[in-house]
């Protein structure tokens, strides 16, 4: 058996700018990142200490599973106490065990900015699901004429009268605030108010 | 500000403190209130202020004023129940209700009427022991908080002024109209915009008040509770499905956090000393139905205040949409003018354009022509005081089904009211009038009014009627035979379950109901405080939520998260071992906890995937079930076998504790023979009965994750397998043959396979019919319905349907039974079989089972019996010493009332 040389790397890090300091830190190698975190390429893990610091030591044989793999491409995942992933860093490639700059992860968690859902994005999905939910609450068979009429009239009303062009034709005032009111400062004055 | 609203949707900004839920929630509290509308919000706030810990659970989302953008397309789908698609079962009446934090009070017109004195007396006669003095103090208390004030003359818009003018102009039967006046409304200072002191008069009340001047529950009681130091939390997007109770004591509630299409994301379990159902009319009855509260009056006596409209077209522009939508009322013909039976109010109202388009009963070009005149219309509604003739049923899909037909009295009131209103419009100069009837949409002069009246009476189905005031369904009274709740709103038969909202009204009210509902909420809270059940403790239960101790209830992603941060317990490694016997020995390697309905099974570790509802995981759960069984080899290792339930595969493995980089100590499960040795598992024992696992493909330590799973030795009956069911079924120590009377009631059935217990697949209803004949009505997923004949003696409870199969039942608890749908089968003894023989078997009309068995033999499978499990299926085979060989389905039955 040829002798295998193993080198140890020490990764240090700290987590700042958060209310809690207790995180579970996982150090991963990025060689197959298209598999995201479904790959077992964990190099090490540790809980942060009371001051939010952590240290993980790993041997290079853990990532050197292919002849072409030279430098490790390290990144860190932070999990909260329940295991939820709260942060993922960019990758760093230390050239050797003394490349401390690339073996240090000082993580500053910035305020999570989420514009995930505008409340209105899902309007159509909601409406379709609502009609589907009517399901077995209706005696549709007794009322085919009535139900089709209702459906057609609702569709007609919805297509035409939620439409700004149609409002303008009719001279309807329409909403007195913009579509996403909270995004910009706006007046609470009505178009028709006298003062 | 100390308290928080939790919900599912993640938003940029919210007026109150708001947090997104990312996992199942379990709470132990004093009080749990379901529904945050006119009654629920007040009850929750008052009980929190009285020192109780309170959670308020709301099915709809939390939307603040700033997110109410006055667009009908956006707001109806966000704030209205079922996005506005809410009808009676015959689709004749659209029912508007709110579904958001604050309930219908967020989308209502802010009109406030006190409960009429006549109604107080009528309700007293029906057994409601609430005095006028009590109603008065409660109404005063609420009115002060929500700032009930009279609309000023300056605040009347042109639409309201038209009704005012008409009331002073017209005579009915030669008499002037004397009872008409401006409304009281609950508007006041905005807490979010201090420059606004009262209603901005935008006209968009039905779409929520952007300015926070409408003093809905959201900006009054709920806001107070959130800003206080009291122990109060609100959960939104939280659909409560079930109240948990036993012997008249409620222990908590269960539900789901739902995404915007209504699908479950996370679960919630609240353990509480007292539960109040305030989900509004229809929903409250539905919750009581779904929770199996046994009272035949639930769902009976629904009233709707059905209201048709009459529009007057005037030459001048009215711009009815500008200004307060409802500010003037004609009381002459209603309960507020001492009309004791029926009657109606004529109420000025105006609708934003989309709702107006829905209200005008015509189609195509005609409809477009009428809509073009939008700015020239004056509109008012005839709000009738109808009889409580509707009923709410629970459908197979657990939805409420509202059955309601207009009575002749109500139709006559509508015809009369619409005729009077049409005449009013003509008398003050309308050039034509539009009535809510599809046969006579437009009338050009007062002479044509009788035509409209006749159309209404002859063809009431042509009426376009809306309702915004469903009431009743859980009537209040002093007689449990006729009512659902007593005068304190306590549900009959329960010590700590209350229902308080519009659903408890014993008759329709006759005036817009919000102030009465709020007063009732106030009274209920005060009565709960006065009669607090101090002998009830919180029963700590996880229900069906995800936890390390019951990982079978977790989402796949949560299994992965728990695996990452939970350490394997090496001291429990010993406990990996399963029983020596491979057969169930009741009381030894297999036990059943009748109270908790949990099975502890040491035959093997039963495997579970995540509870996710996506197709892939559902498929895995249904067809990919497995167990792992371990026997000790030496102090360091166990030999194991992994067996998928539906495939004849036994994958041998070796289990050893190891250190694995990143994971720490784990159990490595190494498969020993091809092809399984391409895969491996890593396991963590988290307690004696639960293991978290990950399955990988590839080289140990560097493999590709296939899936996360868990394994348990203790699991709820909702996760049982066919052998578990057979053990319960055939052992007298666990079950007995029920009598006919024991089975009376509704039961829902779930099919059991080894991998999977289905959601509800059938409903059985056992009862005596009118002639005293005992029978069972069955409903299989709404597809197949009918009656079965039941025969029962002390050895066998059996029923037959039109198939050659029959059912047998055994009872485990008064609310839990197990059943089998089976057929006996026997086989020709020869183990080989020819195609010719099969041909003749088919020609002789043999049963499917015999034919199937023959096919097995032709392919020389060298079996004389069908396998225990037939492929991927719920069909199973049993060989019982007395009953013989039988094939069929197994199921569990849970009693629903
Ligand atoms: C468009 C409109 C206009 C109206 N105008 C007026 C008016 O001007 N004046 C007046 O007096 N009345 C008016 N009303 C009626 C009045 O608002 C209601 O009668 C009153 O709010 C009923 O109160 P409630 O507590 O019974 O139910 P609601 O206020 O409807 O509250 C019930 C709440 O329970 C929630 N809920 C339902 N099921 C569940 C569940 N399974 N889990 C959790 N939560 C659940 C609902 O989402 C809802 O938010 C109007 C109603 C509507 C719809
Ligand atoms: S009319 Fe008044 S109460 Fe109604 S939404 Fe507009 S500002 Fe609010």
Give every kind of bound small molecule, once each.
flavin-adenine dinucleotide, iron/sulfur cluster
**What class, by secondary structure content of chain B?**
alpha+beta
What's the architecture of the domain at 551-715 in chain B in CATH terms? Answer: Beta Barrel
Task: State the name of the first-level CATH class of the domain at 551-715 in chain B.
Answer: Mainly Beta
| Head-to-tail CA distance between termini of chain B | 43 Å
Tell me the strand percentage band of chain A.
15-25%
The outline of chain B comes out as elongated
The geometry of chain A reads as elongated
Per the CATH scheme, the topology name of the largest domain in chain A is Immunoglobulin-like
- Strands across the major sheet of chain A, in which order? 3-2-5-6
**Assembly form of the protein:** heterodimer
Key features of this structure:
heterodimer; A: 195 residues; alpha+beta; Immunoglobulin-like; 4-stranded antiparallel sheet; 3 helices; 7 strands; elongated; B: 897 residues; Lipocalin; 9-stranded mixed sheet; 18 helices; binds flavin-adenine dinucleotide; binds iron/sulfur cluster
């Amino acid at each position: 058996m040829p002798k295998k040389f193993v080198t140890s790397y020490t990764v240090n890090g700290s987590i700042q700018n958060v209310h809690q300091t207790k995180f579970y830190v996982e150090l991963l190698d990025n060689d197959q990142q298209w598999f995201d975190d479904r790959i077992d390429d964990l190099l090490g893990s540790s809980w942060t200490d009371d001051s939010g610091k952590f240290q993980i030591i790993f041997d290079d044989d853990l990532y050197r599973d292919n002849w072409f793999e030279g430098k490790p491409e390290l990144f860190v995942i932070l999990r909260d106490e329940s295991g939820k992933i709260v942060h993922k860093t960019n990758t760093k490639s230390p050239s050797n065990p003394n490349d401390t700059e690339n073996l240090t992860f000082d993580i500053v968690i910035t305020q999570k900015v989420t514009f995930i859902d505008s409340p209105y994005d899902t309007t159509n999905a909601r409406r379709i699901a609502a009609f589907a939910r009517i399901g077995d609450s209706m005696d549709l068979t007794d009322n085919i004429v009535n139900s089709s009429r209702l459906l057609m009239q609702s569709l007609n009303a919805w297509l035409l009268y939620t439409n700004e062009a149609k409002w303008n034709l009719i001279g309807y005032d329409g909403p007195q605030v913009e579509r996403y009111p909270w995004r910009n400062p706006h007046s609470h004055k009505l178009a028709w108010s006298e003062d | 500000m100390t308290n928080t609203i939790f919900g599912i949707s993640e938003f940029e900004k919210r007026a109150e403190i708001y947090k997104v839920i990312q996992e199942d929630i379990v709470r132990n509290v004093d009080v749990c209130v379901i529904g945050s509308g006119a009654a629920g919000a007040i009850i929750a706030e008052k009980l929190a202020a009285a020192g109780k810990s309170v959670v308020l659970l709301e099915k709809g989302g939390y939307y603040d004023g700033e997110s109410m953008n006055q667009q009908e397309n956006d707001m109806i789908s966000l704030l209205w129940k079922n996005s506005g698609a809410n009808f009676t079962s015959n689709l004749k009446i659209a029912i508007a209700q709110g579904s958001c934090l604050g309930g219908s009070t967020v989308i209502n017109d802010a009109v406030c009427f006190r409960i009429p004195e006549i109604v107080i007396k009528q309700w007293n006669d029906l057994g409601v022991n609430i005095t006028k003095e009590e109603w008065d103090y409660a109404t005063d208390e609420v009115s002060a908080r929500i700032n009930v004030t009279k609309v000023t003359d300056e605040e009347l818009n042109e639409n309201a002024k038209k009704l005012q003018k008409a009331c002073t102009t017209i005579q009915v039967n030669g008499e002037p109209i004397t009872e008409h006046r401006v409304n009281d409304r609950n508007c006041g200072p905005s807490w979010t915009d201090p420059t606004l002191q009262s209603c901005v008069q935008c006209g968009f009340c039905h779409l929520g008040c952007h300015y926070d001047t409408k003093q809905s529950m959201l900006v009054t009681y709920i806001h107070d509770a959130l800003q206080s130091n009291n122990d109060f939390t609100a959960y939104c997007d939280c659909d409560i499905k079930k109240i948990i109770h036993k012997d008249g004591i409620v222990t908590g509630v269960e539900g789901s956090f739902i995404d915007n299409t209504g699908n479950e994301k996370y679960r919630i379990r609240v353990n509480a000393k007292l539960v109040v159902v305030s989900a509004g009319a229809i929903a409250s009855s539905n919750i009581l139905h779904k929770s199996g509260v046994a009272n035949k009056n639930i769902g009976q006596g629904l009233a709707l205040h059905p209201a048709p409209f009459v529009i007057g077209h005037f030459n001048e522009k009215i711009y009815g949409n500008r200004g307060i939508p409802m500010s003037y009322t004609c009381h002459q013909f209603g309960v507020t003018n001492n009309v004791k039976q029926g009657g109606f109010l004529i109420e000025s109202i105006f609708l934003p354009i989309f709702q107006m388009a829905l209200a005008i009963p015509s189609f195509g070009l005609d409809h477009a022509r009428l809509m073009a005149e939008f700015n020239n219309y004056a509109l008012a509604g005839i709000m009738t005081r109808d009889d409580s003739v509707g009923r709410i049923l629970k459908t197979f899909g657990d939805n409420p089904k509202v059955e309601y037909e207009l009575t002749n009295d109500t139709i006559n009131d509508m015809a009369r009211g619409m005729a009077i209103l049409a005449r009013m419009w003509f008398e003050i100069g309308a050039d034509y009038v539009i009535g809510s009837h599809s046969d006579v949409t437009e009338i050009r002069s007062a002479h044509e009014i009788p035509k409209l009246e006749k159309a209404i009476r002859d063809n009431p189905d042509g009426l376009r009627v809306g309702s915004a005031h469903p009431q009743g369904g859980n009537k209040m009274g002093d007689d449990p035979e006729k009512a659902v709740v007593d005068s304190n709103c306590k549900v009959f038969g329960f010590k700590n379950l209350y229902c308080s909202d519009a659903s408890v009204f014993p008759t329709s009210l006759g005036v817009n109901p919000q102030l009465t509902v709020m007063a009732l909420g106030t009274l209920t809270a005060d009565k709960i405080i006065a009669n607090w059940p101090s002998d009830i403790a919180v029963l700590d239960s996880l229900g069906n939520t995800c936890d390390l101790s019951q990982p079978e209830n977790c989402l796949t992603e949560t299994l992965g998260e728990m695996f990452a941060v939970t350490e394997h317990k090496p001291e429990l490694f010993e406990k990996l071992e399963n029983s020596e016997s491979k057969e169930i020995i009741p009381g030894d390697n297999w036990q059943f906890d009748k109270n908790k309905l949990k099975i502890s099974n040491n035959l093997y570790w039963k495997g579970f995937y995540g509870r996710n509802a996506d197709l892939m995981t559902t498929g895995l759960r249904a067809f990919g079930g497995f167990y792992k069984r371990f026997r000790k080899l030496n102090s360091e290792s166990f030999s194991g076998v992994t067996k998928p339930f539906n495939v004849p595969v036994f994958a041998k493995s070796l289990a050893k504790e190891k250190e694995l980089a990143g994971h720490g100590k784990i159990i490595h499960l190494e498969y020993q023979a091809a092809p399984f040795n391409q895969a491996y598992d890593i396991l963590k024992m988290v307690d004696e009965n639960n293991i978290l696992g990950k399955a990988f493909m590839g080289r140990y330590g560097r493999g590709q994750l296939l899936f996360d799973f868990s394994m348990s030795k203790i699991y709820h009956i909702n996760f049982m397998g066919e052998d578990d069911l057979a053990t319960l079924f055939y052992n007298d120590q666990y079950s007995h043959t029920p009598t006919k009377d024991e089975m009376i009631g509704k039961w829902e059935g779930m099919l059991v396979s080894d991998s999977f217990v289905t959601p509800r697949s059938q409903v059985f209803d056992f009862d005596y019919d009118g002639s005293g004949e005992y029978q069972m009505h069955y409903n299989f997923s709404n597809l197949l319905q009918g009656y079965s004949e039941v025969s029962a003696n002390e050895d066998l409870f059996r029923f037959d349907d039109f198939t050659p199969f029959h059912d047998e039942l055994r009872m485990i608890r008064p609310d839990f039974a197990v059943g089998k749908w089976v057929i006996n089968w026997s086989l020709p003894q020869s183990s080989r079989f020819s195609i010719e023989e099969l041909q003749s078997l088919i020609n002789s009309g043999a049963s499917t089972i015999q034919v199937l068995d023959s096919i097995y033999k032709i392919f020389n499978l060298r079996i004389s019996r069908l396998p225990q499990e037939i492929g991927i299926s719920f069909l199973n085979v049993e060989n019982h010493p007395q009953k013989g060989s039988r094939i069929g389905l197994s199921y569990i039955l849970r009693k629903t009332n």
